[in-house]
């Protein structure tokens, strides 16, 4: 005799699949579409990284100078008034001259390092091998053989080719900045027409302003701190009459824009360059300790003191951002990792559904410390909406 439960269903037969509600289907579809969209965006980021990196740098330079241009445009010299287009032309010319000068300086130092490195190749091989002499002559000979098998000339030609791309990127950045300044007076009108609501457009403008202020403050402080660190490293190497002092100072200034990892890498590079030149472990140790002390003092005391409470970014979040953007955009991505992280954190803090992301990215879980702008409203689901199958818009949710 067949047995049935209280509902009349045979327990030996499999239960029928439960039907998903409209809201569950929508959420599942949203997750799947989000994964697909993330994959497409990731592919586009990698495929167009040269243009996107140049555009990101251009936007940062534009945001750094836009407020200054607005102040200049309000100045009056007697009865004359500086117009917006004249101030914009002056800003573009200033940015172009600065970028070209900086790229020329970097290329000249790269050429100097590459040409001199060939002369130090054999000396470097013996110096590195001698560092393993305490492990025995066999180990030292094995290390020397391994070093001689490395084709340094191939790596140097590759580095020279990568440095040659710098000028192309600079020209593209200058073009992007010029067109951004040409369109700057229409940004507010375009944003209002795009959103279709003046109040929502003002909220978005305040969020964008918060991103610009925080990124500008970070870059300003980081530039001053990196310049001071590079100058001190230059003075340390000059005090020991070492070559490449200027190159190591510039490298220190550049790599210090990469949080945490940059200072470690440049300190090790300075020590290796010192050891290759002098082959003296005591001088190398002295330079390493002094350079490390400078990095520690400035990076752990002065830098946080100047930053204050402006940027409360999680250290783990910074490492994850460096890893992700380093994989996507390489070394330029690591320089842009923190500005991008600041922008993501501020945007997520203004959207209720994305606040957990902002809390995870913040150091103390205080996602609202960056801006006083009201949060942006996005679509929400309620029980009544699930029954009707309609979603609230941002204004309805507000």
Kindly describe this structure.
The longest helix is centred in the middle third of the chain and has 42 residues, at 198-239. With 398 residues, the chain is mainly alpha-helical. Helices cover 76% and strands 1% of the residues. The chain starts with 21 loop residues before the first helix and ends with a helix. The protein has a domain at 40-73 and 80-196. A two-stranded antiparallel sheet has the order 1-2.
* Parts with pLDDT < 50 across at least 5 consecutive residues: 369-398
Q: Structural class, please? A: mainly alpha
Pattern of helices and strands: HHEEHHHHHHHHHHHHH
Q: How far apart are the termini?
A: 61 Å
Strand % is under 5%
Q: Let me know the number of strands.
A: 2
Separate helix tally:
15
The radius of gyration is 28 Å
What level of helicity do the residues show?
over 70%
Largest sheet at a glance? 2 strands, antiparallel
Biggest sheet strand line-up:
1-2
Briefly say what this structure is.
The protein has 398 residues and is mainly alpha-helical. It is 76% helix and 1% strand. The chain has helices at 22-47, 49-73, 84-119, 121-130, 137-148, 152-183, 187-195, 198-239, 245-255, 261-278, 281-307, 315-350, 355-361, 383-388, 394-397; strands at 76-77, 80-81.
Characteristic key phrases:
398 residues, mainly alpha, two-stranded antiparallel ribbon, 2 strands, 1% strand, disordered C terminus
């Amino acid at each position: 005799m067949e047995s049935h439960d209280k509902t009349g269903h045979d327990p030996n037969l499999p239960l029928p699949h439960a039907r998903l509600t409209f809201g569950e289907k929508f959420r599942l579809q949203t997750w799947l579409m989000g994964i697909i969209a993330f994959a497409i965006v990731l592919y586009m980021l990698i495929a167009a990284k040269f243009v996107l990196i140049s555009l990101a740098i251009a936007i940062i330079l534009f945001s750094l100078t836009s407020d200054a241009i607005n102040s200049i445009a309000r100045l009056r010299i007697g009865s004359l008034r500086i117009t917006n287009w004249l101030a914009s032309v002056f800003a573009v010319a200033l940015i172009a001259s600065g970028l070209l000068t900086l790229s020329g300086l970097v290329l000249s130092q790269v050429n100097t390092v590459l040409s001199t490195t060939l002369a130090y190749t054999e000396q470097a091989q013996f110096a590195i091998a001698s560092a393993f002499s305490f492990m025995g002559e066999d180990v030292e000979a094995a290390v020397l053989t391994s070093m001689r098998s490395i084709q340094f000339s191939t790596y140097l030609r590759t580095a020279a080719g990568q440095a040659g791309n710098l000028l192309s990127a600079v020209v593209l950045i200058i073009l992007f900045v010029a067109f951004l300044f040409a369109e700057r007076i229409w940004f507010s009108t375009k944003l209002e027409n795009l959103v279709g609501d003046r109040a929502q457009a003002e909220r978005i403008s305040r969020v964008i302003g918060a991103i610009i202020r925080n990124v500008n403050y970070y870059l300003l402080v980081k530039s001053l701190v990196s310049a001071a660190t590079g100058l001190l490293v230059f003075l340390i190497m000059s005090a020991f009459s070492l070559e490449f002092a200027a190159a190591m100072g510039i490298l220190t200034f550049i790599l210090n824009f990469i949080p945490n990892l940059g200072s470690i890498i440049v300190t090790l590079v300075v020590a290796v360059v010192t050891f290759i030149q002098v082959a003296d472990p005591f001088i190398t140790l002295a330079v390493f300790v002094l350079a490390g002390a400078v990095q520690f003092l400035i990076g752990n005391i002065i830098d946080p003191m100047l930053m204050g409470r402006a940027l409360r970014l999680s250290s783990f979040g910074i490492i994850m951002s460096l890893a992700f953007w380093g994989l996507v955009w390489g070394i330029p991505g690591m320089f842009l990792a923190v500005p991008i992280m600041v922008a993501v954190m501020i945007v997520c803090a203004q959207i209720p559904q994305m606040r957990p992301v902002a809390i995870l990215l913040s150091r103390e879980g205080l996602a609202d410390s960056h801006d006083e702008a009201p949060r942006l409203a996005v679509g929400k689901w309620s029980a009544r909406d699930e029954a009707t199958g309609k979603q609230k818009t941002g204004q309805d949710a507000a």
